[in-house]
Amino acid sequence: MGRHIAFVNAPTVGEVYPTLPIVAELVRRGHRVGYATVAARAEAVAATGALVVPYTSSLPAESDRDLRRPDRADYITTVREGFLGEARATLPQLAPYFRDDRPDLMVFGMQSLAGRLIAIRDGLPAVQFQSFQAANEHWSIARHLALTVTPRPGMPDHQAQLDAYTTAQGVDPDTVRAFEPLAQLLLYPRFMQFRADTFGERCHFVGPCTGPRPFQPRWAPADPDRPVVLISLGTVYNRLPGFYRTCVEAFAGTHWQAVLAVGERTDPAELGPVPGNVTVAATVPQLDVLAHAAAFVTHAGMGGILEAIRAGVPMLTVPQTPEQEVNALRVAELGVGRPLDSATPTAGALRAAVDNLTTDHGVHEALTHLQAELRTYGGATLAADIIESTLP
After folding, report:
1. CATH H-level, domain 4-207+377-390: superfamily
2. Which family, according to the similarity comment (predicted)?
3. Do 244 and 267 contact (CB within 8 A), yes or no?
């Protein structure tokens, strides 16, 4: 008989999309999945067969043009404060629902304090997952990049804020710190993790979890004989109309078919006239485009990196956050991509970087090797197996 499994995580594309094939597999096996998400993700979640548990997020909407990327030194503090604010907003919405319809297991994203607190307060067995490089006593993004995490002037540090909040929710802060989920699912391959050898047996590198996306339109190139370059800076810190204008100039009138996914924060009209060999859209079905692409100019989010390796597409990385910086460093170490030398390249430099990348035989050999390694991972099937193994 199927069991009731709850999913609670951040509502971003990078956090939701990797979980969808896992949820679809659990539903296929007869389980009832209640997935907490926002209206913008409801269609994607419902397509898996899960029950959508709606809530309103405090995080900026993807169409919010006022969102600004924090200063690099302030990024981690800003993110931590944002997700504490998200817990304050979402816990009162979700806790009553899962108390009335008690799940047999809570599966929560690493950044979801609400999911963690529901599991602790209600005594639920739990599994944690994350789609970005994990940290332990041996490695973290902040230490790798030598970032100092300091509180804002006049504000207590993050741990003090967190302790005060959990205490107000009736949970001892020491209990939160000591809480260990039954398993930790890392939704990427071991080769993407710095110091992977230092992570214990409770951490499962399940590999990329990629599956059909029936909620997206299909895509094929207008001219199958011309190479495709996909350009995307993700769905968060993506309001860079100047960079997109450079991309249009770089590929206008060339043999390339350029596909620019500029997000909802940028009006395509801001890019000016667009030639026939350049397509500009808020979003594109990335898996379909990568299936035809010869190059990928990317912010180096984990999901996009794995989709590119899976498709055998070399990457030119333009990271926007520290999390993406370490991903870009790993991509370069693995030999499957290169960093763009400048955050404000000229059109000629950008086009030359893409041309040089696509003609580098070493990059293509590295991609072929990692493609084969990716196929050895269980992905969504393995993740579902581990989740089932923890059910009481």
Report:
1. Glycogen Phosphorylase B; (3.40.50.2000)
2. Belongs to the UDP-glycosyltransferase family.
3. no
pLDDT tens per residue, range 184-206: 999 999 999 999 999 999 999 99
Cα-based angle 235, 237, 239 (whole degrees, multiple of 5): 90
From residue 217, alpha-carbon distances to 213, 284, 285, 322 in Å are: 9, 8, 7, 32
For the question of whether the overall pTM of this predicted structure is more than 0.90, the answer is yes
Tokens of 104: 């047999």
Nearest of 210, 264, 203, 212 to residue 238 by alpha carbon? 264
Q: What is the pLDDT of residues 20-53, one digit of tens each?
A: 999 999 999 999 999 999 999 999 999 999 999 9
Q: Are 114 and 175 in contact (CB under 8 A)?
A: no
CATH of 228-374, one of 3.40.50.300, 3.20.20.60, 3.10.690.10, 3.40.50.2000: 3.40.50.2000
CA angle centred on 263, ends 260 and 264, rounded to 5°: 140
Beta bridge partners of 11: none
Angle, helices 20-28/379-390, rounded to nearest 10 degrees: 60
Q: What is the C-alpha separation between 392 and 390, in angstroms, rounded?
A: 6
Strands (DSSP E) contained in the chain are 4-8, 32-37, 51-54, 105-109, 126-130, 183-186, 203-205, 228-232, 257-261, 278-281, 293-298, 315-317, 337-339
- DSSP string across 258-327: EEEE--TTS-GGGG----TTEEEES---HHHHHHHEEEEEE---HHHHHHHHHHT--EEE---SHHHHHH
Tell me the C-alpha distance between 326 and 315, whole Å: 15
In terms of DSSP bridges, do strands 228-232 and 293-298 run parallel, antiparallel, or are they unpaired? Answer: parallel
